[in-house]
Amino acid sequence: MQKIVIQPELCDGCRDCEEACEKLYGASRIMIRELDDVYYPIICQQCEDAPCRTVCPTDAIDDEVDPERCIGCGLCMVVCPFGAVVMEDRKAQKCSQCPDLDTPACVKACSKRALSIIDTERLKLERQKKFVSRMAGVSKGRKGSDILSILTAKGKARQKLEQED
Predict the structure, then answer these.
(1) Which InterPro entries does this UniProt record tie to the protein (predicted)?
(2) How many Å is the maximal CA-CA distance in the chain?
(3) Sign of the torsion angle spanned by Cα atoms 98, 102, 107, 111
(4) What is the DSSP letter of 69?
(5) Please, what's the b/e burial string for 70-93 (b: 16 or more CB within 10 A of its CB; e: otherwise)?
(6) CA 11, CA 15: separation in Å to the nearest integer?
(7) Model confidence over 8-57: pLDDT tens digits?
(8) pTM of the model
(9) Cβ distance 2 to 120 under 8 Å?
(10) How far is CA 95 from CA 46, 59, 106, 149, in A?
């Protein structure tokens, strides 16, 4: 799955992302907010257990909002923890990450690279490889020093001590 990553410290508030989104969808699904001279892009985070999806009485929300099913009640907007759902023409709107494009319009439009896209599966695999390499390094040259052996030995030692008490 791909996710849009936000780095507010890089955002200069130019609103190019908003314009690109508006050009594509008629209304921007990303908003730039300023707080203490720092600009924050507000965008749907595509939550796995999305409150907006859960609260929608017509099941109009998935990765995108189905405008045919949306009744414009606004409950999704109220429960979104990021404030990323907006009402436009009495219908909910939220970022869908431009599924028909190779790169979302906002990411492509951001000259400062405050918005970028990551592949969460690839990132997870990279972290797993790094973890395995680190654990392999722990046991280099010493039999029984891999993490499983260490945890098992510690558990056996604790059990032995408890039996002696």
Answers:
(1) 4Fe4S_Fe-S-bd (IPR017896), 4Fe4S_Fe_S_CS (IPR017900), RnfB_subfamily (IPR050294)
(2) 74
(3) negative
(4) T
(5) beebebbbeebeeebbbeeeebbb
(6) 9
(7) 999 999 999 999 999 999 999 999 999 999 999 999 999 989 999 999 99
(8) 0.72
(9) yes
(10) 8, 17, 10, 47
